[in-house]
Amino acid sequence: MTDSAAAGYMSGLDSESVLPPDLAAAFAAGATQIHARKGQLLIVQGSDADEVYLIRSGRVRVSVYAANGRETFLRDMGPGRLLGELAAISGQPRSAMVAAIEPTVLASIKAEAFRQFLHDVPGAGFWLAQQLTMRVQQLTEKSLELASLPVAARLVSELLRLTSTDGASAEPAVDPVGADVCTIAAFPTHAELATRIGTHREAVTRELRQLAREGLAVQSGRRLTIPSRLRLRALLEQLSR
Q1: 225 CB-near residues (< 8 Å, 6+ apart)
Q2: Distance between CA 241 and CA 238 in Å, rounded?
Q3: How buried is 225 (Cβ within 10 angstroms: 0-12 exposed, 13-18 middle, 19+ buried)?
């Protein structure tokens, strides 16, 4: 497995919280509003730009480029999420690329203003510390999965993340008999999923076909429906033994 594939797998899930309304209002008070078109680059990997962005509407995609020029998808982020905070704190060059994947509105402040925001606004520093702690825990869990679970289990685990109630692309629903049906409205490509879980596209296609045969996943175009997350969880437990 390549280092870039591992990085993609370990960063696939964005489980952190959105910036609370009071903190978002304080952040935006002195911010510049930016309107980004679909496809527009907001952050360039390796650059010294130090702006921190708060997504007000729309969605962006975070990715990294390896030395050979290969792009590796990391995650999508939506309204309420912060971008660029690590470089603003560390003073290091940008570690990833960020581009709008749909028309997006952001609030932008410089690194110095962001550090002042963390210092002056009650709760801001603690909130960010919580997010960074969650990020470390997430990376630790996914590192363990990457090292110990087979591809089938890693894929099922990723599908459960994508269909969680706080997943930005999930549309949870309940059918007439009470099963926990969930539909992913914009299901990632098989290649993107492969990057997330540290494998290759063919393996993802094979495992998704197996899930379809077992009635655990139904794909139609870019939509993927999970008839029962409980059954999917049970399968993950079985595959993880």
Answers
A1: 181, 182, 183, 184, 217, 218, 219
A2: 6
A3: middle
Over residues 169-174, the mean pLDDT reads: 48
Q: State pLDDT tens for residues 10-20.
A: 334 345 689 99
Query: Residues 74-89: pLDDT tens digits?
Result: 778 899 999 999 999 9
Q: State mean pLDDT over 165-171.
A: 48
